[in-house]
Design goal:
- It is a single chain.
- By secondary structure, this protein is α/β, with parallel strands linked by helices.
- It has eleven helices and eleven strands.
- Helices cover 46% and strands 18% of the residues.
- The strands form two sheets. It has a six-stranded mixed β-sheet, with helices on both faces. A five-stranded mixed β-sheet has the order 7-6-8-5-9, with helices on both faces.
- Helix 6 links the parallel strand 6 (156-159) and strand 7 (180-183).
- Helix 2 packs across helix 9 (262-276) and helix 4 (96-105) runs parallel beside helix 11.
- Residues 1-25 form the signal peptide.
Length: 323
């Protein structure tokens, strides 16, 4: 009879383990949540993440602690979150850098962007703009391209994330010019050197670059998308500026580690959708150059897979070799 009693105990223990996530989720959140950002303080994702963090804190009734873990094309932060306990207390606000581009830019990415994460919701898009030091003579993208053709290898561009890397390489490929890439750990450092004149130009997210444009420290020449942005409608698209087949956008979204309980995912998704439904929040985010919207977890999961394939093509087409 003892083996039967042992089996019964094992079944009870197993049932308790299965029930544990649901019980835990019912009480979620019962302590502060860490929101990991893969870029430095002052970057567009950081600024947007802090607004979302503040709003989510009010909705969920717990403090949201923003933790910056920049570097290595956002893979340092992504690896950290992928290894975290899937209990909803370590979340990730990230972009196409970690999930769409890094697997194609780097030979050894220590995580799977699909299998190692639980998609929660999209947050919106961060449109990119091409900015130059105002002391440079270029008033249009055509001016920049013409100068680059006259001076191969002498004009430099900064990057602080994968979108900046791929945008610069795509410009070189589409316009048939030789320009020199200067990578930075994050967007703020790159912008500082473009403002200072150490680097000639940069593709930057609107949230980071727009204040410099508005203050006259940088000149914006175009947006990186196929069509004009409603946020900066006076700027031409790259196609309008004379560079064909140019359409790059940086998406933003929220993840947890793989295995996040469905009840926690549903609660977080509802809270994020509640944030983007607030007109005052959308207005604040638009002022940063961020187009806020959300999605279901299922739609976001499908989107992540599609974007991984799309960015692979963009990177191959631009002739970027894995490092």
């Amino acid at each position: 009879m003892q083996p039967i009693r042992l089996l019964g105990a094992a079944l009870v223990s197993g049932a308790a383990l299965i029930a544990a996530p649901a019980v835990h989720a019912a009480d979620y959140p019962s302590k502060p949540i860490t929101l990991v950002v893969p870029f430095p303080a002052g970057s567009g994702t950081d600024a947007v993440g802090r607004i979302f963090g503040s709003e989510l804190s009010a909705i969920l009734g717990q403090q949201i602690v923003v933790e910056n873990k920049p570097g290595a094309n956002a893979t340092i932060a992504a690896s950290y979150v992928a290894r975290a306990k899937p209990d909803g207390y370590t979340l990730f606000v990230t972009t196409n850098t970690s999930h769409s581009a890094a697997p194609w830019l780097m030979k050894n990415v220590p995580y799977d962007p699909v299998k190692d994460f639980t998609p929660i919701a999209r947050g919106g898009n961060l449109p990119f703009i091409l900015v130059v030091n105002p002391k440079r003579p270029w008033k249009t993208v055509g001016d920049l391209v013409a100068d680059a053709k006259k001076n191969p290898g002498r004009i430099t561009y900064a990057s602080g994330n994968s979108t900046g890397i791929v945008a610069g390489a795509t410009l070189a490929n589409r316009a048939k010019v030789d320009i020199l890439h200067v990578p930075y750990k994050g967007t703020p450092q790159g912008l500082t050197d473009v403002v200072g004149g150490q680097v000639d130009f940069m593709f930057t997210d609107l949230a980071s670059g727009l204040p410099f444009v508005q203050s006259g420290q940088l000149r914006a020449l175009a947006v990186s998308t196929a069509e004009r942005s409603t946020i900066v409608p006076d700027l031409p698209s790259m196609a309008e500026a004379g560079v064909p087949d140019f359409d790059l956008n940086s998406w933003n979204g929220y993840f947890g580690p793989a295995g996040l309980p469905p009840e926690v995912v549903a609660k977080l998704n509802a809270a994020i959708n509640q944030v983007v439904a607030k007109p005052d929040v959308k207005k604040r985010l638009a002022g940063l150059g961020f187009d806020a919207f959300s999605s279901t977890p299922e739609a976001f999961a499908q989107f992540v897979g599609e974007q991984r394939d799309l960015w692979g093509k963009l990177i191959r087409d631009a002739g970027i070799e894995q490092q």
